[in-house]
Write a structure and sequence with these properties.
Elements (H helix, E strand, L loop, with lengths): L1 H13 L8 H5 L12 H7 L4 H17 L6 H6 L21 H4 L17 H9 L14 H15 L3 E3 L14 E3 L8 H12 L6 H9 L15 H11 L6 E4 L4 E4 L6 H14 L12 H12 L3 H5 L4 H15 L3 H7 L4 H12 L1
Antiparallel strand pairs: 1-2, 3-4
Helix pairs in contact: 3-4, 7-8, 7-11, 7-13, 8-9, 8-10, 8-13, 8-17, 13-17, 16-17
The structure holds 2-acetamido-2-deoxy-beta-D-glucopyranose (2 copies).
The site of one 2-acetamido-2-deoxy-beta-D-glucopyranose has 3 residues, from helix 12.
Length: about 350
Amino acid sequence: MCVEGVQYFFFRFLLSPSLCFSSSFVSSFLSVEEPGSKVCSAWQASDFLSREQQIKDWSRRKEEVRNYRCSGEIMTTLIHRGRRADVGGNAEKRAEGEEDSVLDKGVGDEDSGDSKDIRLTLMEEVLLLGLKDKEGYTSFWNDCISSGLRGGILIELAMRGRIQLEPQTMRKKRLLDRKVLLKSDAPAGDVLLDETLRHLKATEPPETVQTWIELLTGETWNPFKLQYQLRNVRERIAKNLVEKGILTTEKQNFLLFDMTTHPVTNTTEKQRLVKKLQESVLDRWVNDPHRMDRRTLALLVLAHASDVLENIFASLDDEKYDVAINRSKDLLDRDPEVEAAKASGAEMIWAVLAAFNKS
Ligand SMILES: *[C@@H]1O[C@H](CO)[C@@H](O)[C@H](O)[C@H]1NC(C)=O
Ligand SMILES: *[C@@H]1O[C@H](CO)[C@@H](O)[C@H](O)[C@H]1NC(C)=O
């Protein structure tokens, strides 16, 4: 498995259009942030193909890949997936007696505050979904998760009543034209959220959702704005999950270097999460985003943006998988402008979706 890892590593990075080889990469996979290399969808597809197919496909893709951006093509990838998903069949061994309290919460306001019920932040949930349980790192092919996690930070801050979109005006009607305004800078008790709040507070004039996702990811040509990049995001989120007893920390030797990995040590929370999301598009499907639990809706949007939706549905049988994919596609294909206008409480979720659709 180590050898495979190294092969993936070289395959992934030597062929990567950005050829970015940061020193932090060597110390920890999780900490890799790859500014400017959003080429996810084509690469992600390779995750589900055999090695031979990957190599065959690669030369054809090489050129396409340079032009790929996050999102957009992801659903196509999902629908044409090979059945070789390596997510470890979690949901088969579903824990019993799980409560659905969080699921039924609800359709309230975005300002539901720092509820004690929120065991994990959206960023922690997205990373947990993206991690391979045993290996403890995210797919090497996934270039979307970095910006997806930044989107998660913005939604989490909005849900906690810290930020909001500026009100609609005649000139600024569209979600992506409206700036992100600070509502309260009260600490949220999470390092990444609080660091982002400080950046938001320091920025005058305010910026849009799309610009913030780019700034926080470090995708900017403006050297004065590089300071807004959040660093070591994956590693810091993983550390939180280690503290919460969900992940553990290991050093893995990959022949050329040591790598810090974070295998899942207690699968209860991940199983609960996967089950909640599966149910939201199967048994509990309401075909109306406004009647969905906000955090569930946010998580589906973020899983899509981070290209980890596949991990949620991989354990389903083929028939249910198709239904789940169709319904997710239906949800994510909706027009964010139209949906946001129907209920103001979920504006940030739809703005983040709009930003990913556009990028
Ligand atoms: C795993 O986590 C759940 C709560 O998320 C907890 O109830 C359970 O006791 C934990 N299991 C172990 C073996 O620590
Ligand atoms: C999913 O959508 C496709 C295309 O719209 C359709 O052909 C197929 O029957 C759908 N499958 C299910 C299970 O709904």
